[in-house]
Automatic annotation (TrEMBL):
InterPro entries, alphabetized: TPR-like_helical_dom_sf
Official protein name in the record: Uncharacterized protein
Keywords, in A-Z order: Repeat, TPR repeat
Organism taxonomic ancestry: Eukaryota, Viridiplantae, Streptophyta, Embryophyta, Tracheophyta
Species annotation: Papaver nudicaule
GO molecular function, one term: Hsp90 protein binding
Entry annotated with the keyword Cell inner membrane: no
């Protein structure tokens, strides 16, 4: 899906959560950072980053 529409923030967000649930913190953080770059005004992007950091701790 990311290959079809790399600017769709919801795809990155959902994939970030999937990575986090699989305990893949680095991948989750990468997608969360993509969300932040695409929509810096979107609070959920920062939430996804927080979840990813929590996995990494």
């Amino acid at each position: 899906a990311v290959q079809i529409d790399p600017q769709d923030v919801s795809i990155h967000s959902n994939r970030s959560m999937c990575w986090a649930r699989m305990k893949e913190g680095n991948d989750a953080l990468r997608d969360a950072r993509s969300c932040i770059l695409l929509r810096p005004d979107w609070p959920k992007a920062y939430y996804r980053a927080g979840v990813a950091y929590n996995v990494l701790k």
